[in-house]
Amino acid sequence: MSIAREARIGVVGVGAMGSGIAQIAAVSGHPVIVVDTDATALARGASGLERAIQRETEKKRMDGAAAAAAIARVQWHHAFAPEALDALAGCELVIEAVVERLDAKRDLFIQLERVVSAECVLATNTSSLPVAAIAAACTHPERVLGVHFFNPAPVMALVEIVPALGTTSGVTARTRALVDSWGKTTVVASDTPGFIVNRIARPFYGEGLRLNDEGIADPATIDWAMRELGGFRMGPFELMDLIGHDVNFTVTRSIFEAFFYDPRYKPSITQQRLVDAGMLGRKTGRGFYDYREGASRPKPYEDRALGAEIFERILVMLINEAIDAVLWRVASPADIDLAVLKGVNYPKGLLAWGDAMGLDRVLTRLTALEQEYGEDRYRPSALLKRMVREGRRFT
Ligand SMILES: NC(=O)c1ccc[n+]([C@@H]2O[C@H](COP(=O)([O-])OP(=O)(O)OC[C@H]3O[C@@H](n4cnc5c(N)ncnc54)[C@H](O)[C@@H]3O)[C@@H](O)[C@H]2O)c1
After folding, report:
1. Which of 125, 236, 272, 307 could serve as 225's disulfide partner, Cβ 3.0–4.6 Å?
2. pTM greater than 0.85
């Protein structure tokens, strides 16, 4: 049975992500019940949602009556204690977007199961915790799955749907169909660290940092190469400065640890020092670049041969990561390419890019790096080797 447009949707935790998710559901026609333990967060969420929907009318994407109706469909509930969740009783789907702590999420799911019906689907927006570990707190883990939105949720098209070990295929299909009906692009990812996007995108940052650490090029030159020669919207350093080094470093470290210290995901000491120094990027005025008033941006060294070397090294690492994700059945090849197009706005899908570049060239470049450094970090995926040996392509 599908989840209908009139179905009541619950959103627990109304920070950066919860407010955007509530907006999507309300605009799509659902009555939405928002719950947070913090009254200030609720007030901020309510005014933020109203402003965001008003902006849609200014941009003529919505008329005034539809906007007012969407705003009126959201009810805001202050849960004085985490167990005060009764308002969620009639929901058919509850999406959890509270702090990224396993104990907090598990406690919440235990409380949720006491309130909601047996048919209600329980979803987590976690970025880095195993969905299975959250589901394990439940009496009915088969109705629990990950529904991973990207920030800002109303703008970013991609949503990763992550069934856990025990999730039924019906729950996955129903939830995916519902999120599709909200106009999102959904992909199905296995419950593995970083799901699709946060895993595959690691070398964009990691190899950029490495090139800088080795003195091959400075951040301005690496950013220039990735933008001008690679066609990426932003280079790795300007993007890390935007995301915030605290956030980006934490994601990298959690994936490195979750993969039992695989050297491919090794965090950078340079980035850790920025975090230690409180130079978190744009939000603190300094990161790799200086954003304080009067500061000037360093000029890149616009040498096309050097630029091509930088771009190709980062690109082959990204392509290798995408191919390895196919090998480990993280998602289908089509979903892997869709995920980077819609989740991080890469100019091409990485598997299609590998085909266009020539998988043999990707392999040659990685093998040369592996030989030069003698590090497992550069090992080509077994699937890449197999594809080259058999003369196969992804597209
Ligand atoms: N921020 C991002 O870019 C991003 C992207 C994708 C996924 N996520 C994931 O989404 C989740 C939320 O992240 P965020 O950045 O919105 O966090 P946030 O800190 O901005 O908001 C969390 C909110 O949850 C509330 N809260 C905490 N415990 C609660 C409880 N027991 N019951 C009800 N409310 C509670 C807090 O008061 C706060 O308002 C995390 O799991 C995070 O990993 C974040």
Report:
1. 307
2. yes
16 Cα nearest atom in ligand 1: 16
Q: Tell me which residue has tokens 């702590």.
A: 101
The CB of 108 under 6 Å from ligand 1? The reply is yes
Q: Cα separation of 261 and 27, whole Å?
A: 43
Pairing of strands 32-36, 74-78: parallel
One-letter amino acid for residue 350 of the chain: L
146 CB near ligand 1 (under 6 Å): no
What is d(CA 361, CA 353) in angstroms, rounded to the nearest whole number?
12
What strand order describes the sheet that includes 74-78?
74-78, 32-36, 9-12, 93-96, 121-124, 144-149, 158-163, 185-188
Instruction: Respond yes or no: is residue 127 known to be catalytic.
Output: yes
Per the residue annotation, which of 30, 77, 125, 148 is the catalytic one? 148
| All CATH 1.10.1040.50 domain ranges in the chain, comma separated | 199-390
Helix 236-243 / helix 245-258 crossing angle, nearest 10 deg: 100
Q: Which two tokens stand for residue 318?
A: 């990204």
CA of 232 to the centre of ligand 1 (A): 29
Q: Could you give the angle at which helices 39-58 and 16-27 cross, rounded to 10 degrees?
A: 50
Which atom of ligand 1 lies nearest, measured to the CA of 18?
16
DSSP letter string, 128-148 = SS-HHHHHTTSS-GGGEEEEE
CATH class (in words) of the domain with range 199-390 = mainly alpha
Ligand 1: which of 24, 33, 36 to mutate, judged by most atoms within 8 Å of the beta carbon?
A: 36
- pLDDT means per 10 residues in the chain (395 residues)? 88 95 97 96 96 94 95 93 85 96 96 96 96 98 98 96 97 98 98 97 98 98 98 97 95 96 96 98 97 95 98 98 98 98 96 98 98 96 98 95
Nearest alpha carbon, ligand 1 atom 41:
126
- In ligand 1, the atom with minimum distance to the C-alpha of 41 is 39
Domain with CATH 3.40.50.720 in the chain: 9-188
- Ligand 1 binding pocket includes 15 (Cβ within 6 Å): yes
How many whole angstroms from 19 Cα to the centroid of ligand 1? 10
Per CATH, the number for 9-188 is 3.40.50.720
Q: Is 359 in the pocket of ligand 1 (CB under 6 A)?
A: no
